Amino acid sequence: MKLAHALMLSAVLALSACAGNRETPTVELPGGVNEEAQADAQRAPNVFDRMIGNDARPNVGPCPLMGVLYDTARVVKFAQPNNQRYANIEFTGEMQGVRGLCRYVDSNPIAMNMEIEMAFGRGPAATSDRQTYRYWVAVTRRGRAPIEKVYFDVDVRFPHGEQVVTHRERIEHIEIPRATADTSGENFEILVGFELTPEQLQFNRDGRRFRIDAGDTQAPGQ
């Protein structure tokens, strides 16, 4: 699978909630269930319905697991890489959560969108009010190496006097092919994280951290 082609913007795809949150509606009449209405809900849509995204059938399985990879959930940029002290912080970043929706019926690929909540801090050593952060989105088989990994840049501007800004990044369309109609979304994971230098990654793995508001005058939290 080439995620570079799958992670593409789409303004027309209608996504439904994950399976399990949505069931085929039934109408209770004096004589019981309206079987005709129930059959209509289960019937495969025609070509026109598919074109306009009108398909009320539930997903055939659960959505892939979505999450932030712990070791890459934070980034701390120091003015001098070998000086990992609070006064030497230029910028910080933190991924605070991820959520999304998926849609797949019959043997169709899994179509998803995703939102990533981020927060960014400007530290005491910063000399600019702008910083570009790079992050990645990876599709993996559960517990295995990534199938595909794509990188994105976020250009953050800190308004005058503001040391912390929040941002919501939206990935409009992720498509995951399925080998068969029985292949469930629970076989896949979608993970996100910051692109880090080896030193930044080791900083995180050592359990060291500063608050996202590292630019404030208060003492940093470790």
TrEMBL record:
Lineage: superkingdom: Bacteria
Signal peptide residues on this chain, from the entry's feature table: 1-19
Keywords on record: Signal
Name this protein carries in UniProt: Tat pathway signal sequence domain protein
Species of provenance: Candidatus Viadribacter manganicus
